[in-house]
Specification:
alpha/beta, 3 domains, five-stranded parallel beta sheet
Length: 416
């Protein structure tokens, strides 16, 4: 026998729901009202009257993952309903609740409890309710974002959820590639004076550039990075070899720097035709963004990263010892190769000489220290193994395009 708790203040809706449960499910459950339930119920139907009620649901879910929570939402708060996806709920109900839909979901909850399965969010039911309210297509953006975030976290494991989520995606198109974007504003005072915001400008430039041949671009902001998702044409195995797409990326990068002083750095993952694997593209884009460039600092592709296991071992060694006075012979010895052969192999696989690569790793660390610490340029130069502060400054400008002091005066873009 399952327990159902009704945390509903709307007396009419509460009476209606209680009558349905007693008529259709009396042999399977018992109803508790308000806080009369000892411990947690198996099923909780909770009215959403304010945004804070979602916080209450989150706390309940943290304390008891087994409780099936169904939010009951009034029409004016329907725009917050995508939070049900983020909270990994099975479904929700919009007022006025339809009997068939309600009973169908309650019985589905009984089945998941019996099978000890968590179930997945039912996009079909919520879309049906939004259609009934005449709001289908009007509030899709939050559902798109919630679905795509779950997809990138690897939390979606069934094709059925992908199929149902297509109802909220324009053209029913699920993206197949992820671009990982970070950056800074060269002159923060320009942004403030002209009244624009870097994240919005970046999105607008990409939308304008790609609009003619990519129907739908999706942007997901995180605190210090943003991801851009879209579909690469089926004839192209990679964005790198898609002539129009690659050229458009470069034009946007150049335009942002030239017109706004916005410097962005993009890591591009692989193309995945299977939506359930898209989270790999996200991880690959992040890794590409942080890997020394094969060709361009501003645009790096995951497929450019060497897959040679011996060189990967050397790269890991460099990452641990870059502050030391590393020699090519010392690193080549890690995989028992001669210096000439190792140097040729390293250049072929990474696109850069050994000296360039090691220096770039040091500069990457310098960028972090300049942004996140109050260490002086002299202290940073010493910590990273540069002979003199002047040599460090010259090297930094050669690689980053700005002197250390100029970089420290820039503004990191916060996307969320």
């Amino acid at each position: 026998m399952y327990s159902i708790q009704l945390a509903i203040e709307d007396k009419r809706e509460k009476a209606k729901i209680e009558a349905w449960i007693r008529a259709e499910c009396a042999s399977q459950c018992v109803i508790f009202e308000g806080d009369n339930q000892p411990g947690f119920p198996h099923i909780l139907i909770m009215e959403i009257r304010t945004p804070f009620d979602w916080v209450r649901i989150h706390r309940i879910r943290k304390r008891n993952r087994e409780c099936r929570v169904f939010p009951l939402i009034c029409p004016e708060l329907l725009h917050t309903s995508s939070l049900a996806i983020e909270l990994e709920l099975q479904s929700l109900f919009a007022k006025p609740v339809k009997k068939n839909l309600f009973i169908r979901n309650i019985k589905r909850a009984f089945e998941s409890l019996a099978n000890e399965s968590t179930g997945s969010f039912n996009y079909k039911d919520i879309y049906e309710q939004m259609q009934a309210e005449g709001r289908a297509g009007q509030d899709d953006a939050p559902f798109q974002e919630a679905f795509l975030r779950r997809l990138l976290r690897g939390e979606i494991s069934t094709e059925q959820e992908v199929i149902e989520a297509r109802t909220f995606l324009p053209g029913a198109a699920v993206p197949n590639i992820v671009c990982f974007i970070q950056g800074f504003v060269r002159f923060p005072e320009q942004e403030e004076k002209e009244g624009w915001q870097a994240p919005t400008v970046i999105q607008d430039c990409f939308l304008e550039e790609f609009s003619s041949y990519v129907p739908h671009l999706f942007f997901l902001p995180y605190r210090k990075h943003m991801v851009m998702l879209f579909r690469v044409p089926s004839a192209c195995a990679s964005l790198r070899y898609w002539k129009e797409g690659h050229a458009s990326m470069l034009r946007v990068i150049d335009r942002l720097e030239g017109e706004y002083g916005i410097h962005i750095y993009v890591g591009v993952g692989s193309v995945y035709r299977e939506p359930l694997l898209l989270h790999h593209s996200y991880r690959e884009g992040r890794k590409a963004r942080r890997t020394p460039p094969y060709e361009r600092l501003s645009l790096r592709y995951y497929e450019e990263i060497t897959k040679d296991e011996q060189l990967q071992k050397c790269i890991e060694y460099i990452g641990k010892h870059y502050t030391e006075n590393l020699s090519v012979g010392q690193v080549a010895a890690q995989i028992n190769l001669s210096v000439p052969y190792f140097s040729r192999l390293f250049k072929k696989e990474t696109g850069r000489s050994f000296v360039y690569y090691v220096t770039f790793v040091r500069i990457q660390r310098a960028v972090w220290l300049l942004r996140h610490t109050n260490l002086t340029i002299e202290q940073i130069a010493e910590e990273l193994g540069f002979n003199t502060p002047n040599y460090f400054s010259c090297t930094f400008k050669k690689y980053a395009g700005l002197s250390p002091s100029e970089y420290r005066a820039t503004k990191e873009i916060i996307f969320l």
